[in-house]
Amino acid sequence: MNVEDILKAKGREVTTVMPDAKVSEAVQLLHRRGIGALVVSADGHRLDGILSERDIVHALADRGTAVLDLRVDELMTRRVVSCTPTDTIAELMGEMTRRRIRHLPVVDRGRLVGLVSIGDVVKNRLEEMEFETTSLRQFIAGAA
């Protein structure tokens, strides 16, 4: 299984925010959409950065509520780890675990084509395990 399989199941919609938006606007967008991260993109196609709930909470703890008046590009992570549609789920799990990240933008030939969360990866893995379990049970029942 690869990233493309996850995108086929969940869709390719990515919620983006402009780099010059206020952090308070990003917070509202995260809340409204019920998501944990926003891809920062000036044009909706290029990956400029990422802003997660964790980024915002850490900044609030360090700097207080003045963070809400900052521009997104002042707080976002600029060196974004991304993946491609052909990356395997095992590669994603390893990368997310090693780097302790929860969201990976999916980029294909320099263009943003999706976003994969740790929840998407876990859901996919659980579905794989359920399929394998069912297949083994059917095999054993047929062999008996």
- The H-level CATH homologous superfamily, spelled out, is CBS-domain
Number of helices: 6
* Class from helix and strand fractions: alpha+beta
Amount of beta strand: 15-25%
Q: For the CA atoms, what is the radius of gyration?
A: 18 Å
Strand order, main sheet: write it out. 1-2-3
Q: Might you state the CATH topology name? A: CBS-domain
Main sheet: strands, sense, barrel: 3 strands, mixed
Cα(first) to Cα(last) distance is: 31 Å
Please state the overall shape, judged from the principal axes of the Cα atoms. elongated
| CATH uppermost class | Alpha Beta
Mean pLDDT: 92
The tally of domains stands at 1
- For the record, the CATH architecture stands as Roll
Instruction: Work out the oligomeric state of the chains in this entry.
Output: single chain
Helix proportion of residues, in percent? 40-55%
Task: Give me the strand/helix succession.
Answer: HEHEEHHHEEH
Number of strands: 5
Low-confidence stretches: none
